Amino acid sequence: MSTNRQAAASNPWRAPILFAFLAILFVLEGTVRNSMFSGSWNTALAILNMGLISAITALGVNMQWGYAGLFNVGVVGFLALGGVAPVLVSLQPVEGAWQAGGPRVLFALAVGVGTLALATQVWKRLHRGRTLAMLAVLLVGFVLYRGLFDPAVTAIEANNPARHGNLGGLGLPVLMSWLVGGAFAAAAAWAVGKVALGLRSDYLAIATLGIGEIIVAVLKNEDWLARGVKNVTSIPRPVPYEIDLQQNPEFVEFATRWGFSAAEASGIWVKLCYMLLFLVVLLSIILLAELALKSPWGRMMRAIRDNETAAEAMGKDVTARHLQVFVLGSAVIGIAGAMMITQDGLMAPVSYNPLRYTFLIWVMVIVGGSGNNWGAVLGAVLIWFLWIKAEVWGPELIGLLTSPLPEGGLKEHLLDSSAHMRFIAMGLVLLLVLRFAPRGLVPEN
Amino acid sequence: MDILNALVAFLNFVFIPAAAYGAQLALGALGVTLIYGILRFSNFAHGDTMAFGTAVTILATWGLQAMGVSLGPLPTALLALPFGIAATAAMVLLTDQAVYRFYRVKKSAPIILVMASVGVMFLMNGITRLLIGVDEQRFADGTRFVIDVRTFKAMTGLQEGLALKTTQVLTVVVALLVVWALFWFLNRTKSGKAMRAYSDNEDLALLSGIDPEKVVRMTWIIAASLATIAGVLYGLDKAFKPFNYFQILLPIFAAAIVGGLGNPLGAIAGGFVVAFSEVAITYPWLKVARYLFPGWQPEGLLQLLGTEYKFAVSFVILIAVLLFKPTGLFRGKSV
Question: So where does this one cross the membrane (chain A) (predicted)?
Answer without folding.
Answer: 12-28, 40-61, 68-89, 101-119, 131-149, 169-191, 203-219, 268-293, 323-341, 361-387
